[in-house]
Amino acid sequence: MPSVVLRGLSKRFGGQTAVDDVSLRIEHGQLVCLLGPSGCGKTTILRLLAGFTEPTAGEIVIGERVVSAPNRVLPPERRNVSMVFQSYALWPHMTVAENVAYGLELRKLDRATIAAKLAAILATTQLAPLAERYPAELSGGQQQRVSLARALIVEPDMLLLDEPLSNLDANLREEMRFEVRRLHQTYHYTTVYVTHDQSEAMTTADLIAVMNAGQIEQLGSPQEIYRQPRSEFVARFLGGSNILRGQALDAKSLAFAGSSIECHNALFVAGKAAAAAVRQHDIRLLPAASGASGANQLQGTVVRNVFLGATRDYIVEVAEGVPLRITAAPEADFVPGARVNLLLPADRCHALIT
Question: How many CA atoms within 13 Å lie on the side-chain side of 342?
């Protein structure tokens, strides 16, 4: 399976830039998630990869072939690329088996080969018992498995998934995340998966490209992106983070809310503006009587306490009226108005690029 390379890829629609000088290499067999909010350019990149639209600048290379460049676009049917849409796009008058085998029929493979490939993919996607049903007789999750099976059976050079789980309810989405990952581990097709859902990206991806305003803000493994966000946008978008802004005291510490906050990965410049991120669940919430002095400790007042079953969701106001959001164990029950102490472990405070 070939690698996929995006070199200086840009796409403008009139005066609006949807994709802005994006470069990315996807090794063969990797699953890369383009993660970001609506309008960040991720779906435009998917359409450029599919050949549905022409780039304004840059190029796309699959294997040794340049498949997209300005005024030179290989049509979708000649790319050996499969795409799975949000809406499943199944033929309503065809059975599950007929839908799945449709791509092989178009390639005019012999009946024995089609039958063998069909049996294998239906077994792998757990659709064999449903082979003679029609799409209207299937649940949303089953329809999405049919769509995936149809895309996989043609053995594409690249598989494109456009928000494939967005039409499913919460429980089905969770189940299908693991199904997508299981199928990827079975077939190892080079895959680009577009989503705005952090949990989908974390569950399915080998690499996550966090997109913002048409550019890749950060690229890395799910663990790297989550544990070491480089910017405020990434820290906020991928999991709940509090952003601490202040003035750098030295290379490792910044002044915040009347205290000094040490960050394990900082390279601050003393006297310059600095920022750090700390996840909501990494802040320790303690009774005021425990005392709060020294680096990475703050005093505050509880503004909100919401019981969520497995956790409590707090807002605590610290010095200078700054609110911090904290996720704590349900047993930690501090009423609004209570004075509390906060501990922000240095190894969980991450310096950000400002």
Answer: 34
Q: Which of 229, 86, 217, 107 is nearest to 156 (CA)?
A: 107
**Whether pLDDT at 292 is above 60:** no
Is 70 exceeded by the pLDDT of residue 290?
A: no
Task: Write down the pTM of the prediction.
Answer: 0.87
Q: Are 94 and 102 in contact (CB under 8 A)?
A: yes
Instruction: For helices 96-106 and 140-152, give the axis angle rounded to 10 degrees.
Output: 20
Q: Where are the domains of the chain?
A: 4-227, 240-351
The per-residue pLDDT for range 164-189, each reduced to its tens digit, is 888 888 888 888 899 889 989 998 99
Residue with tokens 């320790």: 284
CA distance 269 to 283: 25
Query: Under CATH, which architecture does the 240-351 domain have?
Result: Beta Barrel (2.40)
The CATH classification of domain 4-227, taken from the options 2.30.29.30, 3.40.50.300, 3.40.50.1820, 3.40.640.10: 3.40.50.300
Average pLDDT, integer, range 17-29:
95
Output the CA–CA distances (angstroms, integers) from residue 67 to 11, 33, 54, 188, 323, in the order listed. Answer: 15, 21, 10, 22, 50
